[in-house]
Prior knowledge:
The complex is a heterodimer.
Chain A: H1 2-37, H2 43-56, H3 66-74, H4 76-85, H5 96-130
Helix pairs in contact in A: 1-2, 1-3
Chain B: H1 2-23, H2 31-45, H3 50-61, H4 64-70, H5 72-77, H6 79-84, H7 86-111, H8 115-121, H9 128-138, H10 142-158, H11 160-166, H12 172-191, H13 196-224
Amino acid sequence: MLNENFAALLLRVIRIIVQIGILTIFYYMGVGIVSYLHIPLPGSVIGLLLLALSLNFKIIKVEYIQDGAGFLIGILTLFFIPATVGVIDYPELMSITGQLIILAVIASTLISIYVTGQLTQIIEKKELAKKESTETTVEEGKGELSVD
Amino acid sequence: MIEAIVVLSTIIMFILFTKLYQRFPHPIMIPLVTTTIVSAVILLVFDIPYATYMEGGEWLQKMLGPAVVALAYPLYNQRAIISKYKYSILSGLIIGMITGLATIFVLLKMIGVEASWMLTALPKSLTTPVGMQVSETIGGIPPLTAVFVMIAGFVGAIIGPLVIKYGKIDSPVSRGVAVGSASHGVGLVKLREYGEQELSVGSLSMGLTAVIGAFFCPLFVYLFM
């Protein structure tokens, strides 16, 4: 019994590692495309798009990446902690300019929420009016993004 | 040696702070914030240079690329919502992107900051991993971008509900798009309390904003700076 559980766990760990390998291949394809075409975009985002398209057109089965992707997303925050700690090299953030920029970020975010919410509401009413009598509930989204 | 210490201690702190956050789920308590603050304090108290710390830190950072690629998975899962509210969500996201970029640009121009600050603040509404990578791409300072990203998130989670209430943003889709596009994952913490629809649309909006923003931010810089 114990051996069976252990085998299942081992299999799961191997599956996650192999799937992270697949995600890494997509990442390097994205990096390759960006450096080959000299476009100012993060390679990771191009990799994300390639994977989303591959899933959508059934080039890659979702089973091939879902455990690895779920695992990485679950601990996504961990990977950018080292970079955020880098803030200690920038005491300028505490200067008057730094504080003003923080206020600007706050104001910009509030304006964005208000304007986007209002306009989306108007557009949504038009879209729903066009669709006549379709049900109004959204299907529950699986695999929601992690909180960061 | 230092590599192993940094990697292990970061992972252990991260696990402990994740447990703490599950008990006290307030936006201020998210593991990124707590782990970063404690790590930063340790470095400052023991006078350890950031470069030394990064000898280990870069091992964790190397996983960031594949982790961003992994975001394709939840986006793929939510394709049903996209097809249902195509026009509302997509046009809402583009409105959100333009409003966010235009307002921070104008405000920082009014303050009169240097270009490097501008490039650092522009990706503030993108989820942290993508925001930092976009910041690096356009010539900003990624760790500072992360700070602005977190602030944008806190604003959405803490003051966002007041904007939704007094601004009469009443439909689940518009709430999700508004908060997801301006305040990414941290804003989602609060959206969860409104309901499943808000959360799904918000989570989708955060993912698509990251993708759209990766294209829009460099374009915006090219056009206006």
